[in-house]
């Protein structure tokens, strides 16, 4: 399914100078004119400073984030509905990007660089650190407040002490003594009661009510005692007389026994079971050799036979029954129950007698249980003793005693309630008398509690922030950047692999220039923008396999990418844009590029860039347009012997050690004319085809990267071509700004390229130079310009 990116014709802008809403045509058309139309996939937009270029770029960036009322439109002026992946493919390089994605900070004499997500993480850390500082200040303020509330004349302790003194001085203890009869202390519980005794009644009314109730209470107190506790109830469930009689009368079946076993059973039935039990112990002992009854010797086999017979008689059922009998033994009831003195003597006596009778029956049943255990096969048929009836009498006696206790308590309950009311009234009077001091203390106590709670919360917040900071710092350490790719782009821009380079130092990226650290103050705005542009082109490949960074459709917008660069950097940036634009446009047929600039010379350079890509690398399969921003719209911008002498002049300049200002002034044009003349005369092609042709590139080998950079420095800085027979030697103002060393390097690269392509040609054209000297110079240049600059 085709991407909507290929359908982008323009953008509807509704912000800044275009806030009323205007359509800005970015490409002029989607297809070029003529018999063989090509898709228009690149555009250069020229506009003076303040014309609105940055507003357009920001609008496109906002559209990509889904944060704008503007929209991109197609050739029918219809708004394009962009999917999330299509929005992600719209990437804008502008001042906002530079500010958001690059950060250079100082670390001593070093410059530490952060890019992309690193900047976001660093910003988050900075914001967290500010919050930590704010929280720390709040904690310190709370510590000061807590110290003030815990110590000093207005502390919680001193104010509470003052409030208690107010309560005491208002007569709290004296009034309470009249009620209780004892001299009280204002202890913890009493102090809490006073604090809780809030009332809306006035002090005079409270005093009058207290005096009236106190009079009544004093009369009631003379009549009785405090409320007394009832006698505890008894659990009668274990004392089941029906179960006991059934258990004692239960018949145990006789097992099928031998004659000897029958005699053992008769012993048990005749109340001689203890003899049988003793026999088991005697004949189970290893030491027994003689029967203690008949004094005859007994063998081990005979002993084992006797024990087996006894155990057969006393089988498992018998043992289980014996265990049930043991469990049925009854506990005696405690007769020493404390009965209050206020209970009548008759009730006391009835209860004591009932206890005695129940315990007598308990003792009797326990005796019967022991007797049955001794004669396990002999059932007891005696009738019930009357334990159930005795328990009923005991229950009645208990109820009688507790009934009297209840009556006594009812008699004194009114006086106790009156006493409690008086104690409450005393607390209310005291609370009213000391209201101001108590409330001052409570307010301060509340302030202290709030301050401590706030401190706890702030400490928790501080720990959370410190944890977040640690997480962000850990994330920052994990964020990697494609430093090798960035450095290769920087080499392309500066034509020097050591001029400006990022190097990983521990967990940070430092800036080195020719192996030396660079302080932040020595990094220009232009160099920072170059770094941001290199990262911008690298960022597009994040998360993608190597070699597939530009496979997906994308729309790249560059807003004044070379607005603040000097001439040297401008040419290098054009070279970088040329390289990346070619890759973007070749990797996906739907991708598009727009470059906005305020510099007319940059506009011409960019036209050369796109024309070069169109003509040489993409088989003329796409078109580009140049447009000018006018008001709130854009409009289209209409687009030998001499050779040998030039070659000798170039050779002399390449070998020079001091600068000849006159020759240095025109060397750029000389080199361009040499290269264009060579390509036109020998192959009928331009310089672009010459060094980008795969066959020629293979012949240049490892020198190709340096030679390509040198060619761009030449071809992007003048519009004259030898094929058009423009013979003027007027220099390009743009090339003139190169340093002498850079010009000499370009001359050496041109001669090295010609020599690698056709050394016989070079030797014949430089007839005045010995072969040995020429070979020695070329060998030195080969060494210098060998390998991939990085």
TrEMBL record:
It comes from the Bacteria. Gene3D superfamilies: P-loop containing nucleotide triphosphate hydrolases. Keywords: Coiled coil. Residues 125-152 form a coiled coil. Residues 37-726 form the Protein CR006 P-loop domain. Heterodimer of SbcC and SbcD. Belongs to the SMC family. SbcC subfamily. This is Nuclease SbcCD subunit C. It comes from Propionimicrobium lymphophilum ACS-093-V-SCH5. The lineage of its organism: Bacteria, Bacillati, Actinomycetota, Actinomycetes, Propionibacteriales.
């Amino acid at each position: 399914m085709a991407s909507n990116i290929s359908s982008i014709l323009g953008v509807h802008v509704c912000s800044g100078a275009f806030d009323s809403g205007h359509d800005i045509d970015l490409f002029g058309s989607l297809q070029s004119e003529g018999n063989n139309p090509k898709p228009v996939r690149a555009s250069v937009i020229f506009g003076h400073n303040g014309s609105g270029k940055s507003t357009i770029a920001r609008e496109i960036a906002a559209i990509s984030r889904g944060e704008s009322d503007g929209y991109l439109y197609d050739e029918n002026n219809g708004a394009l509905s962009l999917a999330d992946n299509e929005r992600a493919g719209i990437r804008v390089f502008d001042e906002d990007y530079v500010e958001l994605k690059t950060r250079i900070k100082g670390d001593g004499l070093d410059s530490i660089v952060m890019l992309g997500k690193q900047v976001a993480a660093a910003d988050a850390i900075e914001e967290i650190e500010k919050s930590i500082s704010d929280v720390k200040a709040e904690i310190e303020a709370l510590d000061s407040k807590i110290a003030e509330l815990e110590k000093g004349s207005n502390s919680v302790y001193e104010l509470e002490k003052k409030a208690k003194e107010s309560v005491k001085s208002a007569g709290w203890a004296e009034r309470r003594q009249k009620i209780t009869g004892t001299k009280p202390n204002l202890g913890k519980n009493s102090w809490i009661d006073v604090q809780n005794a809030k009332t809306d009644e006035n002090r005079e009314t409270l005093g009058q009510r207290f005096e009236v109730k106190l009079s009544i209470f004093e009369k009631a107190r003379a009549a009785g005692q405090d409320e007394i506790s009832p006698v505890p109830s008894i659990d009668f469930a274990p004392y089941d007389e029906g179960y006991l009689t059934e258990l004692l009368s239960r018949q145990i079946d006789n097992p099928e026994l031998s004659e000897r076993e029958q005699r053992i059973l008769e012993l048990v039935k005749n109340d001689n079971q203890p003899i049988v039990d003793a026999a088991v112990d005697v004949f189970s002992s290893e030491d027994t050799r003689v029967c203690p009854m008949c004094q005859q010797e007994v063998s081990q086999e005979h002993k084992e036979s006797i024990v087996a017979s006894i155990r057969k008689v006393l089988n498992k059922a018998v043992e289980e029954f014996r265990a049930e009998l043991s469990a049925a033994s009854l506990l005696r009831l405690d007769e020493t129950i404390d009965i209050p003195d206020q209970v009548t003597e008759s009730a006391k006596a009835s209860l004591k007698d009932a206890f005695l009778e129940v315990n007598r029956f308990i003792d009797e049943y326990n005796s019967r249980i022991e007797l049955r255990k001794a004669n396990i096969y002999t059932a007891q048929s005696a009738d019930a003793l009357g334990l159930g009836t005795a328990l009923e009498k005991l229950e009645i006696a208990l109820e009688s005693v507790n009934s009297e206790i209840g009556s006594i308590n009812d008699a004194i309950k009114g006086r106790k309630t009156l006493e409690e009311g008086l104690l409450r009234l005393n607390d209310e009077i005291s609370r009213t008398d000391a209201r101001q001091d108590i409330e001052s203390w409570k307010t301060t106590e509340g302030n202290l509690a709030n301050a401590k709670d706030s401190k706890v919360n702030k400490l928790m917040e501080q720990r959370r922030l410190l944890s977040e900071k640690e997480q962000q710092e850990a994330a920052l350490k994990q964020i990697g950047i494609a430093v090798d790719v960035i450095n290769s782009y920087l080499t392309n821009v500066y034509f020097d692999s050591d001029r400006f380079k990022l190097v990983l130092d521990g967990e940070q990226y430092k800036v080195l220039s020719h192996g030396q650290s660079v302080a932040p103050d020595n990094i220009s705005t232009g160099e920072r923008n170059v770094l941001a542009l290199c990262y911008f082109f690298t960022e597009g490949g994040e998360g993608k396999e190597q070699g597939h960074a530009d496979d997906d459709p994308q729309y790249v917008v560059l807003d004044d990418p070379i607005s603040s660069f000097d001439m040297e950097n401008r040419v290098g940036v054009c070279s970088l844009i040329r390289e990346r634009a070619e890759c973007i446009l070749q990797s996906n047929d739907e991708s598009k590029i727009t470059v906005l600039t305020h510099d007319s010379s940059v506009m011409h350079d960019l036209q050369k860039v796109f024309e070069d890509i169109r003509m040489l690398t993409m088989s003329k399969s796409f078109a580009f347009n140049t447009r000018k921003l006018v008001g709130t719209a854009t409009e289209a911008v209409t687009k030998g012997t001499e050779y040998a002498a030039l070659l000798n002049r170039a050779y002399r300049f390449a070998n020079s050690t001091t600068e000849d200002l006159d020759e240095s002034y025109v060397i750029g044009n000389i080199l361009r004319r040499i290269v264009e003349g060579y390509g036109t005369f020998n192959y009928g092609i331009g310089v672009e085809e010459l060094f980008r042709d795969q066959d020629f590139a293979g012949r240049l080998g490892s020198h190709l990267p340096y030679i390509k950079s040198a060619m761009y420095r030449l071809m992007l800085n003048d519009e004259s071509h030898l094929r058009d027979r423009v013979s003027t030697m007027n220099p390009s103002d743009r090339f003139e700004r190169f340093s002498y060393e850079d010009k000499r390097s370009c001359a050496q690269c041109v001669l090295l390229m010609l020599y690698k392509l056709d050394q016989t040609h070079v030797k014949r054209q430089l007839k005045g130079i010995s072969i040995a000297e020429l070979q020695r110079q070329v060998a030195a240049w080969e060494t210098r310009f060998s390998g991939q600059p990085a």
